[in-house]
Amino acid sequence: MDDVFFMKRALRLARKAEGHTSPNPLVGAIIVKDDTIIAEGYHKKAGLPHAEAEAIQKATKSLEGSTLYVTLEPCCHTDKRTPPCTSAIISSKIKRVVVAMIDPNPKVSGKGIKILQEAGITTNVGVLEEPARRLNEFYIKFIRTRVPFVILKTAMTLDGKIATPEGESKWITSEKSRDLVHRYRGRVDALLSAIGTVQADNPRFTTRIRGKKDPVRIIIDPD
User: Fold this and answer.
1) Which residue from 14, 64, 115, 202 has the highest number of Cβ atoms inside 10 Å of its Cβ?
2) Domain 3-145 - what CATH class?
3) What is the CA radius of gyration of the chain?
């Protein structure tokens, strides 16, 4: 088993909290010692322990000499509800930290890695970086631009129609694509539509997937 194997597991853990961590990113962490996973965790909700802290807290044996795999650079700033993960990592005597990607947040952005290195911890950055970026594309877009990540959903026929001339709407998309829409709803903070759609279709705009939250519903009405 190698770094890629364990990082894949950390990414799967992070995805378990999809739709629940905003405005924080999705993060998963695994602690390995002697090629065996001895603890793991993931960030479940803003205000709750970060993935690294949760994994460290769950450990039932000494972490000295172990390796931490984490999908995002450990935080190092103190102006938030949870303590910096770099301090917990250093205190636990973890020997090596493998990170999928640098945190684009200016408050971290390489500073967490530097603190760990200065404490004598070996660091490796960039293991499965692209999957980690895709996992947190919403977070990355907002941190860098202060503009929300927008997903446009529309369904139409090949000739550009969305309903019959009488205004009747029929299923155009497949069951697979409708399932995808519900998975997107479970990931986003809000859903935006217009009053015309609401009056014509009376949609629920809910996420019909067990364990996923419903987005905030925003309706545009010029009146």
Assistant:
1) 14
2) alpha beta
3) 21
Neighbours of 110 (CB within 10 A): 13
Q: Which two tokens stand for residue 21?
A: 């961590």
The C-alpha atoms of residue 70 and residue 31 are separated, in whole angstroms, by 9
> What's the pTM value of the predicted model, to 2 decimals?
0.86
Cα separations in angstroms, 75 against 18, 51, 118:
20, 11, 15
Domain ranges of the chain: 3-145, 150-222
- Residue 152 identity: L
39 contacts: CB under 8 Å, gap ≥ 6 = 30, 31, 55, 56, 58, 59, 60, 63
- Chain segment 4-32, per-residue pLDDT in tens: 999 999 999 999 999 899 999 999 999 99
What's the token pair of residue 195? 């009053």
DSSP H/E element including 55? helix 51-58
Residue that the structure tokens 């990607």 belong to: 101
CATH classification code of 150-222: 3.40.430.10
- Decide if 52 is catalytic: yes
For residue range 159-187, list pLDDT tens digits in order: 877 777 766 666 777 788 888 888 888 88
CB atoms inside a 10 Å sphere around CB 88: 21
